[in-house]
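Supplementary material to the annual report.
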Amino acid sequence: MNARAPKEVVKEASMLKQKEMISGNYAKLASAKEQGRKVVSTFVPGNLNELIMCFDLVNNLPEINAIQNGMRKKTGGYIMEAEKRGHSEDVCTYVKADLGMIAKGNLGPDGHPLPAPDALLLSYTGCFTFMKWFELVREQYKCETLMLHVPYEGDGHATKNMRDYIVKQLKEVIIPGLERVSGVKFDIDRLREILRESAKAESHFVWVLQSAKNKPSPIDAYFGGVYYVGPIFTAFRGTPDATEYYRLLRGEIEQRIANGQGPITPDGEMKEEKYRLVVEGPPNWTSFRDFWKMFYDEGAVVVASTYTKVGGVYDLGFRHDPDHPLESLADYCLGCYTNRNLPSRIDLIEKYVNEYEADGLLINSIKSCNSFSAGQLLILREIERRTGRPAAFIETDLVDPRYFSPANVKNRLESYLQMIEQKRRSGIAPPAAAMPGAAPAAAMQ
Amino acid sequence: MTTLREINERCSALYEDLNFGYAREWKAAKPGRKVVGHMPFYVPREIIHAGGGLPLGIFGGGDQLEVIHGDAYYQSYICRIPRSTIELAVTKRLDFVDGMLFPSICDVVRNLSGMWKVMFPNVYAKYFDVPQNYRDDIGGTFYINELNELREGLGKLAGRRISDDEIRASIVLFNENRRLVREVYAFRAAQPWKAPAADVYLLMRAGMTLAVEEHNRMLREYLDAADKADARKRDNCRIVVTGAFCEQPPLNLVKSIELSGCYIVDDDFLLVNRWEQSDVAVEGDPLANLAHAYLHNSAHTAAKYEDTEKEKGMWLVDSVRKNRAEGVIFACPSFCDPALLERPMLQRVLAEHKIPFVAFKYAENSGQMQPIREQAGTFADSIKLWSVQ
Amino acid sequence: MVFTAGIDVGTGAVKTVLYAVDGPSTRLISKRCDRVRQRDPLKLAAEAYDQSLEAAGLKRDDIAYCATTGEGESLGFQTGHFYSMTTHARGAIELDPASRAVLDVGALHGRAIRIDERGKVVGYKMTSQCASGSGQFLENIARYLGIAQDEIGVLSQQGASPEKVSGICAVLAETDVINMVSRGISAANILKGIHISMADRLAKLLKSAGTKDGVVMMTGGLALDGGLVAAMRETCVKEKITVEIKSSPDSIYAGAIGAALWGAFRHEKLSMLERKAA
Amino acid sequence: MRTFIGIDLGSTTTKAVVMDENSAILGRGITNSRSNYDTATRVAKHEALIDTRFTLFRRGLGAIAFGAGLLEQFLAELERAFRLEQYLEQIGDLERVCGDNAQGERFRDVQGKIRDALAEVFAQLRKDAPALFAKGAKRKSDFFRDIAGSRFMAIGEEVAGRYKFPFDLLLNIYDRSIIEVENRPPADDESGKLLRALDRAIGFMPSLAGQSADVAQAVRASLAIPLEETYVVGTGYGRVTLPFSKEHIRSEILCHGLGAHLMYPETRTVLDIGGQDTKAIQVDAAGIVENFQMNDRCAAGCGRYLGYIADEMNLGLHELGPLAMQATRTVRINSTCTVFAGAELRDRLALGEKREDIIAGLHRAIILRAMSILSRSGGVKDQFTFTGGVAKNEAAVTELRKLIEENYGKVAININPDSIYTGALGAAEFARRAVVH
Ligand SMILES: Nc1ncnc2c1ncn2[C@@H]1O[C@H](COP(=O)(O)OP(=O)(O)O)[C@@H](O)[C@H]1O
Ligand SMILES: Nc1ncnc2c1ncn2[C@@H]1O[C@H](COP(=O)(O)OP(=O)(O)O)[C@@H](O)[C@H]1O
Ligand code: SF4
Ligand code: SF4
Ligand code: SF4
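Predicted assembly:
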């Protein structure tokens, strides 16, 4: 990738730290069985990492495996394998990448075998597919499956009924289940301790995301952001390692702000910030670098993204709360990005476009993910209407290389950026509240 | 006496009417009447009815609706039903609908509920969640509270509180409806040549539009008339269709399956009216009774969590046995995650029980039936040629 | 001994065969293939059937079972209809009893059908909506390249460094090909590239239909394209699918043959039931 | 003089527009992309420059006092004479190549016959040529491939019949040779051809007799004006293959938006249906793109769809629209997959539907798809401009007008005979703006 770069880009301390953390977790997974440790598989959105830690369980995250495999270009084969075994080409490719990986020997992204889980902790948060996914995995392992049903915030807010329902499930289904699997007795004070640590990292993390309000932005809140969310969305939230990671990261970013520097890219530092974008939707992983390059080559920086909120919308103020441990877990699950209804998602994006002074919104629509994708075209329209800034739409997939068409993505992205540029040059301010959806909206009253 | 042909024509007319003339007339007949639409799948229609409302099933646009604006809201890789539903709405075909319920079936319908709120802020739009935990003290409690919230919402729409007694009375009527529906299914399973799949489908579809009292009458008339039908039994095999619980197949597909040599003896089209599989108790707290029926005695589909691995798919095996079917056809909408992710699990169970199956996908507006006939026909051929007679 | 007929009404051509069947012994009396071109395939089928009978000195009444397949359901005078996969399966067994799978590639479709030794379909996979791997596409490209139908196979096998075409869509694939011509890629390499792309898709179908080994009989129009057959063999080696790809000069008749033979089978069964009933 | 050139490298056709520094269009050129992108670019530009010469002739001849309509008549005569020269040159090339291609193994048994037959075919082609370019003659297409091809087929079939060998052989030689001929960059003796055409045109116009020297003088003078390619901008589907640096390439969306704005400044919505893509573009009062949508990777429902249908029915593209206009009802077609268009057609024919009704249904299907894309881009606003090759199809246009009115009420709809050049026009303007502020 950086073959032409004069020298290897220096890895910053935070990068090294994260690398070490991730490989540490994979090593823990690989040796779990020898060490007699129990493994639990669970999902990122609404994950109960603090609770899992209370039972000394090792955390295996199938979505993260799929991402890592995607970046290593292994998922194409896995998906084929799953399709060969009867899965439709229409369905979520995370699921197929996971099942294909299991079918092909269950080697983790680092090449070491992954252990069979002792329990599946099915956090049904923000995505219906999770439920089917773990039913399918359960079929393979025949292991205990603990279902935590998180109701959807259909009316835009959590209700007492929802919260009570989750807390009750935690108390009567999840905690007893984890006790059974791990043989460890639940200790609420231990949970409080871990939650306290989580909250620290969470505050650092929010600072990191909000640093993008600077001009130029010292970070890319999407392509860089997916690295920054790593510790807090996965097996590390609640560990001192995570707090340390964010402390390091924060230091580095402070330095970049002081120097007036832009984000670091795989090809070195970004020279000029020409466009500031908000991005909705997950990235494509199989061509992640190429995808990113299309942005930084044009001087486009992502200043805020919704994908970095799938594991919690911390910038709206939520923190894990040691004083209300189970209730705050419930609130955390309820508040993940994809568990918020569509109007709330639109409000959030609108806020980002305004607060981060973005040139517009770019939606990366993912073929796999109905949870994100269904309704994005309305989001696009609403944001244009409310902010008067242009939005654009590209289509890719998470981990299915068949659905990443570089020429197509580049064409749309370039057209979009040139459009922003042309508008600027003509000196015409974006027409306030121009209603591009005029006609159909008229039909809607 | 109403003839089969008359019933059939009435049902076809209701099915083809994309302007929902019947519901409009029903609403206009008395001031203050409310129509509450719902997407396919389960919603407690009793509560709508108890509030004096008409539950109206919105099952997409079928193959006759030209979708122009709907595509503006959905990418090509999302199933058809939400886009045709949006098309119905933006072309003002649903402008008389006072409320919309979006059952908990998948992320697409879930997000559609939010789109409705944005696009039609004056309509009562609710995402109606159901528990995936089946313990009375956990999921049950949650559900009763949700039902109460729905009762309040619909009460506001009706302009009054919906009483327990009213709900009880509705439960009685809907129990009757479900009983008759079960009877029609049983009749067809016994003599499928007398109850062609397309006719039964239209009869059930009518129930998504008509007032329940009227549909009950129609079902009774149908049973009478169909029994007397003079139809020749054909050399067809008997199959169960599954996977079509949300976006509906085009009528031609239902016909094609039968034409290519398969009698449909059970299916999961329009599960709404067969959701509770036996009577809902009438005495006592009606919401608790509805919750109880939901938790312990409702249909199995991909949208529900199966909490016991051993039980996975057994309902399908049971249906095959009970209806003496010789095979299963999986007909799933293209891009339907719930149906398509469920499919391999069900297929494994069928294979374990040595029940043959075949699978294909459709869209509500699929035009070319040739590949469908080909697959259903080959399936029928193989059962016919190889069955041990 | 009984006479049976099989009529395969396809999108590209109507195939008609007559058989004499005596228990397990089967004899092909006649076969003919009529290109549909711009004609009405049903009328064409009726004519072809009558002319076949006449040439064989038979009348319609002499035929114990006349079976249609393909799109012949609405022909009207047949005794019964069997669906294509059923008939291709039986046809493949007739062409080579060792066949355990059929690859049926025609004008607009591709199917992999897994069968058992009795010719029963045990699994299948068809190409879906998108059709860059269809015969029609190949025909269009060949014309564009200025290559006659019978040359395609020979030329393709001379392609030493084939260029792959995109698999998404025939329209886009066409653009790919035009691009190649403009880059000076030879016709042989282009054709070979198309054959390889088609073979890739078909191999995938084969795999997902569950075929792992044994004889795979290619049927349908494209079984006669030596280039495709060769590419199929290479692809199977490359993909480590240990099957033996075969094709027969009568491959194009597989559907009609299967129909005629299933007709005989059904006739036997029905007469048996009648005897039992009597 | 300074010229600014825009090139739109489309999937089906390549268009070029030459502009002067005042945004006046000097010339337009179009060619088939279905041969070679480089060549197509060169040919289109070349054609546009020739067209530019004609504009210069017109300007140059403006000083001469002509009788009523005489100037137009003369220019038309000149153009026809020039096209004929051009055509004959290419026929010569084609004959040579066909001769070479007839040497192959395949033709050994009939070599003699083929040689004689080819000679006869080409003699006839030459003989027919002047009539093709005579006043008022209608040509099947503007592209050599199509004009020469259809004549070749017609004559070839008859000749092969007489010589008693399969016509397929001749067809095959033609198919082979035409690619080679198409891929040959234009020979650069344009002034020569123009001057020969000048002589011929003057010869045809006795009414000019008195002024012929002045006319020739003016034409020669215009021909001598050097055309400087000041700035070139490329756009279109194949723009990435253009050997241009990044500053010289613009997205086709922007170019279409700007081009439509130049033609109709009041335009707010633009629809372009080309061979492989459909674009809906919203522009503001300055021609700046506000929003756009394109079809996804699937080529369903684009121009090529009509091409497949035409091929399937053995019709020319331009015959399709008129046929659809004869429909009495419109058959509902739900799939616009290009590849299966033929199958769908056969299916419907088998069900007993009438040919024209089905064709009408297919047209409606395309337009419905375009309507969806329009709706997705933000609907249709006054004024609406329809561009791209499909805008030449009257059935498509009729259907579109109907649907627009139904869905968006009365909206002014602009369709320009030169709408196919919209993208190239926008590109030329971008080229001009890059230099002139
Ligand atoms: N939108 C559609 N309309 C009609 N038929 C469809 C549609 N989508 C898919 N099909 C049919 O489904 C079949 C593909 O099924 P299959 O390949 O088994 O699906 P999957 O890849 O999901 O397993 C094809 O035969 C095709 O005819
Ligand atoms: N004379 C005509 N009549 C009808 N349709 C035409 C005509 N000429 C071109 N077309 C249509 O226009 C399409 C090409 O459009 P064009 O805008 O040139 O495409 P592109 O820009 O992609 O090259 C053809 O596929 C054809 O369907
Ligand atoms: S559908 Fe989306 S949220 Fe759900 S598992 Fe797939 S990628 Fe994740
Ligand atoms: S068809 Fe399937 S994916 Fe589509 S809305 Fe219905 S359940 Fe959801
Ligand atoms: S991609 Fe091509 S073959 Fe596939 S549906 Fe679209 S037009 Fe048809």
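The CA atoms of residues 414 and 435 of chain A lie 23 Å apart.
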